[in-house]
Specification:
Layout: H1 3-18, H2 22-34, H3 36-62, H4 69-92, H5 97-101, H6 104-120, H7 123-132, H8 143-172, H9 178-208
């Protein structure tokens, strides 16, 4: 095993996950609004999305699939539209209102879906897995072993770092800041959705005119 390459991959994953982005904003917002269970369900959704992106990257390396810029732009637009809609819902709903109208199981299912859609359309993750991830395939001499190793490292660090965010928000931040954190997270996600829409529309227009 190429330990130098593996160490570089671990450092890259940590930097990617620690940097605030749509997933972190969604996780923290869900933690203060619904609590631990829904936050971990959201984390499971984002992790599932990452596994899908890893699978796509693997198929691309095998030459089985080829993603066109147009398809990626449409995927990004759909994801941004969903993130924007969910953000607006959070901004204009009252704290605890969702808990009164929906059961805990429904909350968790909704949180998982939001996590999955946010993760699958997250520009940082798409760029990482489609462009950057393939550079670490030589971590072992066997292709399958390399993929499994890189996948395992991602899952472990993704779960650990998102768990730290959830515990930090729920355990160490005062309750009186909960609504402010929720609103800040929602506003950040709304800004990401707006920026993502503009970026993907521009990329789609450029691709169609080529």
């Amino acid at each position: 095993m190429n330990m130098t390459l593996l160490s570089a991959y671990i450092l890259s994953v940590m930097m990617l996950l620690l940097t605030p982005g749509p997933v972190v904003a969604l996780i923290t917002g869900t933690a203060v609004r619904y609590g631990y269970r829904s936050a971990f369900a959201t984390a499971a959704g984002t992790n599932g999305a990452s596994l899908i992106l890893i699978a796509v990257a693997t198929l691309m390396l095998k030459g089985v699939v080829s993603l066109s810029p147009v398809w990626l732009s449409f995927l990004g637009l759909a994801g941004c539209a969903y993130i924007g809609y969910a953000s607006l819902q959070s901004l204009f709903s009252h704290p605890g209102a969702d808990a009164k109208h929906f059961g805990t199981d429904t909350q968790r299912r909704g949180s998982f879906l939001r996590g999955f859609v946010t993760g699958i359309s997250n520009p940082k993750d798409i760029l990482f897995f489609v462009s950057f991830f393939p550079q670490f395939i030589a971590v072992t001499r066997d292709f399958t072993t390399s993929i499994l190793t890189l996948c395992l490292v991602w899952v472990i660090f993704d779960f650990v770092i998102l768990t730290l965010y959830i515990l930090t928000v729920k355990k160490w931040l005062p309750v009186r800041y909960a609504r402010k954190i929720d609103m800040t997270s929602s506003l950040f996600l709304l800004a990401v959705a707006g920026g993502g829409m503009i970026y993907n529309i521009t990329e789609l227009t450029n691709s169609l005119h080529q």
